[in-house]
Amino acid sequence: MTIMPRQQSKQPLMILIVFAVVMGFLGYEMLQFRLAGKKVHGVEVQVRPEQATVKAGESQTFEAAVLGSEDPDVIWSVQEANGGMIVSAPGSKFAAGKYTAPGVAGTYHVVARSKADERRSAECVVTVTPR
After folding, report:
1. Which among 3, 39, 53, 62 has most CB atoms closer than 10 A?
2. Residue 73 contacts by C-beta under 8 Å, 6 or more apart in sequence?
3. So what's the pLDDT on residue 125?
4. In the prediction, which pLDDT does 105 show?
5. pLDDT tens-digit profile of 86-97?
6. How many other C-beta atoms are found inside a 10 Å radius of the C-beta of residue 95?
7. What whole-number distance in Å separates Cα of residue 75 and Cα of residue 73?
8. pLDDT of residue 5
9. Could you give the count of Cα atoms lying within 13 Å of 3 in the half-sphere of its Cβ?
């Protein structure tokens, strides 16, 4: 009696190769999101404090946190023309901005826009009171 060796199917090997290729492609795509400073779930910006009262001509520091991104930087701006000015302030764990109120009392909006996703922003309402 002659025993013939059983031939093994190559199907499991092919499934493993296809699986490895697909996983490699997905891993590459996730890496590209991370390198672009974005995560799959999107970016969210938060500003603290959310409201502030400042006397005309005085300053207030704001902090912005960018969630869902490796890039914590923001672009600071004041929504209203002649609403004062804001510049980036170093020395904080979060993106900080130093706002200087205008000489005119009123309500103004300080905006922090994510550099990673400029469609995402948050704002703070600033009430400027007379000196």
Report:
1. 62
2. 66, 95, 114, 115, 116
3. 97
4. 96
5. 999 875 667 899
6. 23
7. 7
8. 64
9. 2
Q: Is 78 exposed, middle or buried (0-12, 13-18, 19+ CB in 10 A)?
A: buried
State the residue for tokens 């990673």.
116
The backbone region for 68, taken as left when phi is positive above 0, alpha when psi lies in -120 to 50, beta otherwise, is left
Q: How far apart are CA 82 and CA 104, in angstroms?
A: 9
45-75 b/e (C-beta count within 10 Å ≥ 16 → b): bebeeeebebeeeeebebbbbbebbeebebe
Of the candidates 78, 81, 75, the residue with the CA atom closest to the CA atom of residue 121: 75
Q: What share of the chain is helix, strand, coil (3-state, %, to 5)?
A: 20, 40, 40
For the cut 60, the answer to whether the pLDDT of residue 66 exceeds it is yes
CA 60 to chain centre: 23
* CB within 8 Å of 22: residues ≥ 6 apart: none
What whole-number distance in Å separates Cα of residue 11 and Cα of residue 24?
A: 20
User: Is residue 116 within 8 Å of residue 71, measured between CB atoms?
Assistant: yes
